[in-house]
Design brief:
The chain is an alpha/beta fold. 53% of the residues lie in helices and 7% in strands.
């Protein structure tokens, strides 16, 4: 197998099958691409082991992507010194991933261009732009409240502190829309007024299970909103709107993001209230409708009916 060509085609499963059982006989180039594939599939530590093994070995490839991925794995572990080192290796190669590495370097404020940094026991706050001290205090207070509430439910051990990058505007330093979280890297980029637990819940719930299978947008957004301290005052959907939660499982079906999030929150709230935390954690691990039906049975269908009826009547209890 030509692993490089299969990687370009994104044939990840074929690559993993090919490499299984013959690891010791793989050449350096094959190990390099296996390391790249493992990173992109979310197996960060395994990826790092492979890429470190061949770091000093000559491989006839552009290593800029490999160095960047090594830097990002170190970021996910909280080793910022090595993050900088490997991203700089990637940048200096002027390779196919060097510009991307420059963007990561800037996005994670590794250049030190921030207005204020506040380190707390579980979270480090990076205030990117000038901001009033009172707003800094208020933001940290609401995030601490949200963190404590979420952890009282999940009680997980994180690989590193959560890095939160706070902006006054609606876009990050690269022009991406806010807000968003990257659970693999335990990082959040957020507008100062917009979030109070939603993105934190994405990260902490990610570490509540070994690995998430069949990720569902409805479940993901529902658990994030369940722990969001912001209560939306208005929902934007017409009275009498007919929805089907199974159709919404992975598709917003034209709903605006706030209405979708509140519908998801109501559904998840009912599931947790009726069957408790332990069953819901099993749903987090496999978020398919089949697993949901297996875990909740008639209870799932009853919760579905409640939410759909409340939406039709314009009385969603969010």
């Amino acid at each position: 197998m030509d692993i490089e060509k299969e990687y370009i085609k994104k044939k990840y499963e074929d690559i993993l099958r090919y490499c299984k059982g013959k690891f010791n006989s793989l050449d350096a180039k094959e190990k390099y691409y296996l390391g790249i594939v493992l990173f992109e599939l979310g197996f960060l530590n395994k990826s790092l082991e492979l890429l470190l093994e061949i770091e000093k070995v000559y491989v006839d490839v552009d290593k800029s992507r490999g160095y960047a991925y090594m830097g990002l794995v170190y970021y996910s572990l909280g080793n910022y010194k090595k993050t900088k080192r490997y991203l700089k290796y990637s940048i200096n190669l002027n390779g196919e991933y060097s510009i991307e590495s420059k963007n990561w370097y800037k996005l994670y404020a590794l250049d030190g261009e921030v207005y204020k940094v506040v380190k707390q026991p579980h979270i480090t706050y990076y205030f990117i732009e000038k901001i009033d001290l009172k707003e800094v205090e208020n933001f940290i207070l609401k995030y601490k409240r949200a963190y404590d509430r979420i952890q009282s439910f999940f009680s997980v051990i994180l690989q590193k502190k959560i890095d939160v990058y706070i902006y006054c505007g609606r876009r990050d330093v690269l022009g991406n829309n806010l807000s968003y979280a990257n659970p693999f890297f335990s990082s959040i980029h957020v507008n100062k007024d917009e979030d109070a637990g939603h993105e934190l819940a994405h990260i902490i719930s990610h570490y509540a299970v070994t690995r998430i299978n069949n990720k569902s947008k409805l479940i993901q957004e529902g658990i994030a909103e369940y722990f969001n301290l912001i209560n939306y005052k208005t929902l934007i959907y017409p009275i009498g709107l007919e929805i089907n939660l199974f159709q919404l499982w992975n598709d917003m079906c034209g709903l605006n993001s706030v209405s979708y999030a509140c519908i998801a929150k109501r559904f998840v709230s009912l599931l947790i209230d009726r069957k408790g935390k332990d069953i819901f954690i099993k749903l987090l691990q496999d978020q398919s409708t089949d697993n949901a039906l297996n875990l909740y049975g008639e209870c799932l269908l009853e919760a579905k009916d409640v939410v759909e009826r409340e939406v039709i009547e314009g009385k969603l209890q969010y």
